[in-house]
Each structure stands twice: as structure tokens, then as C-alpha cells.
Amino acid sequence: MSIKEFPELSAEQESELVESLLHWCLGNGLVMYPPNFSNCSANNAPITLFPTPMPRNSFKNAEDVQKIFNELYINLVSKEREWLIKELRELSKYDSDFTGKLFEIYEEVTSNGQVPQPLSLGLFRSDYMIHNETNEIKQIEFNTVSVSFGGLSTKVGELHNYLNSSGFYDSKYSNVYYEGQEIPISNSINELAQGLADGNYFYNNQSENKDTVVLFVVQPQERNCFDQRHIEFSLLKNHGIKSYRLTLEEIESKVTTNSNKLYIKSTMDEVSVVYYRAGYSPDDYEHNPQSTWNSRLILEKSLAIKCPSILTQLSGAKKIQQLLTKKEIVEKLLPTVSQEDLKKLMSTFVSIYPLDDSEEGKIAQKLAFEVPERFVLKPQREGGGNNIYKEEIPSFLEKLDKSDWGAYILMELINPPSYKNKIIRNNEVYNENIISELGVFGSILFNEANGEIYTNKNAGWLLRSKFSSSNEGGVAAGFGCVDNIYLY
Ligand code: ADP
Ligand code: MG
Hints:
About 35% of the residues lie in helices and about 25% in strands. By secondary structure, the chain is an alpha+beta fold. The strands form six sheets. Strands 7, 8, 9, 10, 11 and 12 form a six-stranded mixed beta sheet that branches. A five-stranded antiparallel beta sheet has the order 6-5-19-20-21, with helices on both faces. A four-stranded antiparallel beta sheet has the order 13-16-14-15. α1 packs across α5 and α4 (about 100-110) runs parallel beside α9 (about 290-300). The mean pLDDT is about 95. Magnesium ion binds near residues 127 and 141.
């Protein structure tokens, strides 16, 4: 199929489109708080004016591998735990203040040989870029904690459909520009809420108990709170399940436990699922570390189902991602996978190297200095803004003690196609080349102790785009925006 060009609108038509778009965003919660906000005023989230083209087949492949990826990671956590723990112990040496501390909590709560709550919930997101020449999807990273934008993704799909059906994409105002199936809407709000409801259901011995609640652990002054709120609204509306929001610092004073069950102190509502939308980065524990780390410990010791459990969170480390690109390891973790599925999964990997003193590490050290323009260097961090790109790699490594290089991985850069879409941020429209990253959500409920899987599902998708001139794509950080797919 050939690709439709982006709609061509006159300046007047574009300004009418922008007005409607802004009204839709504010009317439907496609919003974010600005920096230094007061509670009563939000802005339109940074988004694209039009959906961005994506080959139908590439999208399908990304959807098809999601459940296999979900299973790969939870099998690692539940069935090859000893191996994972050995690797995490190594990692902790490089990163004692964060990975090390999380790992210490894991050891403390399992000191009697068991996790307090074997049931475990994963709400994951696997991120890809499309390789320019082959249209193959190539994985950027697999996220196991605090995956965001499932809320706003549904909204941006609805917005683009609204603009299309209202005729704003048609220069004659009379026709739809895209056919219905060309711009699908991600059902991630409801699917992620369904994941949390699954957690609540299994916590209550497979019954639909509406008296237990979900605790959202959030960052203070969260500018992206509406993304999370949409999931909370769906959880209440579709499942009758209430939710609470507390920061790590508030946990100590606002929750209580009784026989290891976790309760919200003010109401004595019992918490079935602790959903972390904070706690994935050292920054989250920087302010008042004693209290925030103790809060984490309180939650981990409790019987509430954690989304994710500490081991599941740590299985998303960049170092583990590097190890999981090896075929023999994937085969071991997925003993019953079909050859076809294995091939699909393996085809999403680009080369990722360790930078330690193994043979492979030595090759990578050479590559990093000889052809840095082909690579991105990643530390063990989540949340954007931490990577070192291309020509900056050699001088960065030179400044480090060589014994610390092992904490990094070296990843081949993916070269996606670029498009001339338009981005709106606040009131300003930018007309630049953009590149996009597709995220596919998954939800999985499993038993961490014996590896049994109760639910394993796809949970919608997200397209994020950024100026092709920028290396990183953080939306809240101001580098990127939320987009939607136009399938061709
Ligand atoms: P984080 O945990 O900080 O989100 P990522 O691995 O997702 O780290 O990297 C952040 C961003 O850097 C990605 O969203 C993407 O824009 C860019 N990036 C990362 N790896 C690659 C790669 N291999 N090729 C091209 N861009 C990449
Ligand atoms: Mg990322």
C-alpha cells in the first residue's frame, strides 16, 4: 500500500484545526500540568496534529510478540530466579545506592525463604522503532515498572479520530481523510485498568470484591497525573474499584498493616494491589531517603500484590535486556515456544554488548572507540535523560574508572524513517521532521513462587514522536510528544 501524505491545509484551516484540537484536549483530559502548576489549570499535552504512518505489518508483529515477551520476563523472575539473582547481585556492586538497595529489600522480605505475596502483577511496555530499510520492528527497551502514557494514548487516538470525522483533515471540510481502520484507537486505558482489576480479583481468591482498593504510589507534584487518572476513572467506572494516591513519603504515615495486610489508615480500606508509578529511579528516594526507603519496605513486606514486584522491576534492567538477546538464554526461558515465535522474538533484537572484561565486552570496548556513531551507551537507569549518544561515548568512557564500565551496555542505534508531521506544544505548532517509537502494553498476572500464569494479555499501545534532531524522546521532559498510528 502506498502512504497517504499528511493532510495539506491552508493557514486558516490549520488554525481552525488547532482551535478544535485544543478544545478537545481540554474537554477530554488530553492534558498535563505545566511546570510550577497550581491544581486548577492544566495544558494540552504535547501531541501531533496528525497520526504518523506505520506499516500495518510492523504494527501487527509488535502486537504479536507482546505476550511472548510478557512470558519471557516473568519466567525469568519465577523460574530462573537463581540466575536472575546472581546477575542482580553483580549489578548491585556497580549501583549499590539504587539497584543494591532494592535488592537488599528483596533479600530482607524473603529472608524466611518466601516472598510475602507470591501473586505478582506486571503491566509492561515493550518499545520499538521501525528499521528504515526493512520495516522490521526493533526493540529499544522492555519496561517492567511504571510504564506511562497508556492513558493519554487512548485520548490522542480519540482526538485524531474526532478531527478526521469532523472533516478537519480534509481541505474541503467535507470528507474524512483517513478511513476508519486506518487510525485505530488504543484501548490502553481500559486494558491497563483491567490489569489492575485482575490483580484485585486474584488477591481476593478469584472473586470480584469491590471493598478492596488499589494504591497508586505516585511522585509528588506529578505533572503527568491525568495519564494515571484516566486509568483510575476506568477502574472505578468499569470495575467499581476505588483507588488512592500516595507518594512514597506519605506512605509511612498514611497506611497501616495488620497481619501483614495493608490498609489505608483514614478509611481502613484494604489494599489489594500496590501500583508503582514512582520508585523506579534514585530521584524518587532522594528527598527524605530514610522515610522513602522505609515506605518501600513497608509495602514490600505486605500481602498486597505488587505491580511490579521488586524482582520484576529489576528484571527490566538494561543489563538483563542485553543478556536476554542471546538465543540460548531465550530458549531456556521459553522451553515450549514454537520456532516461529522464537524467530519473531529474536528478529526484534539489535546487537547489545556488555562493556565488561568478557570477550564480548572487549569487542564492544573497541567498537565504542572506533565507531561510536553507530551506538548508544546506556547505564542502569529508567525514565529518560540518562543515555550517552554516538560521538560523546569515547570521552564519557575515558572519564570513568575502567572498572565501572561493566555497569553500562552498548547498543546499536536504530535508524527509523522520519516524517514531516506537526507537533503542538502549548499553543505553538512545530513543523519538523519527526521519528517515532511504538510501545506495546502487556498485562500479566502470575505466581512468582511457582511460575503459574493466570492471565497474559495485550493491553493497547502508544506512539511517541520526537524531533529527529533530538536523541531522547521524553514527553514530560520536553523532548517529545504523544502521537497515534496511521496504518498503511
Ligand atoms: P529509558 O529507560 O531512559 O527510557 P531508553 O532505552 O528507552 O531508556 O532510551 C531513551 C530514548 O533513547 C528512547 O526513547 C529512544 O528515543 C532513544 N534510544 C534508545 N536506544 C536507542 C537505539 N538503540 N536506537 C535509537 N534510539 C534509541
Ligand atoms: Mg525508554
